[in-house]
Amino acid sequence: MICLICRQAELRSSLVSMRFARDEVRLELRAVPANVCPNCAEAIVEEPVALRLLHAAEGLSARGEGIRVCDYQDLDLLEG
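and the corresponding structure tokens:
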């Protein structure tokens, strides 16, 4: 698939770090599976990954937790 941002290169499967912030909640995830553009470095995650990230961030926010750093594979510890 061609990059949706720069339209200059094919996306490559990779692992990336992502950060989320909402009010006082900060979440940093490492080793998130994504498709990354080698030209502009844009990272695009598939829908199931995006939904899982959103669910975890909402769970942290609902519990009023502050800063959290973890690996994507450990995300189930934050969900629910």
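(Above: one complete record from the training split.) The beta strands are 12-22, 25-36, 43-44, 67-71.
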